[in-house]
Amino acid sequence: MIILGQKEEGDLLKIIVEKKGSVVAYFGYVRDFAHGHEVKGMIVKETEKTKSVMERIEKELREKFSVSVHRKEGFEACRYGIDRIKEEEPAERGEILGD
């Protein structure tokens, strides 16, 4: 399952409370500095292709990795998904610099 958007860590727990096996989650946070500049935040804007790209990546994950009851496979699936999202760049992103 891929969840996009501004979520709190507790939101994930509400979804997985009844599941069994391993659950691996990745929360990406904005770095304080980039390229020698202070970063105040980030703007992420969906594009026309965002939904279709994310659905395609989720389908790839489901085909490549079955439901995991072991942590090794869970972490492998999580890493694969993050790498695919970084490769595809399904949304426009921009940093808000402090200077």
Largest sheet: 3 strands, antiparallel
Task: Tell me the quaternary state.
Answer: single chain
Domain unit count: 1
* Helix share, percent: 40-55%
Description:
With 99 residues, the protein is of the alpha+beta class. Helices cover 41% and strands 19% of the residues. It has three helices and three strands. A three-stranded antiparallel β-sheet has the order 1-2-3, with no helix packed on it.
Task: Describe what is shown at a glance.
The chain is an alpha+beta fold.
List the helices and strands and how they pair.
Elements lengths: L8 H8 L16 E2 L2 E10 L3 H15 L6 H18 L2 E7 L2
Antiparallel strand pairs: 1-2, 2-3
Helix pairs in contact: 2-3
Keywords:
99 residues; 3 strands; 3 helices; Aldehyde Oxidoreductase, domain 3; alpha+beta
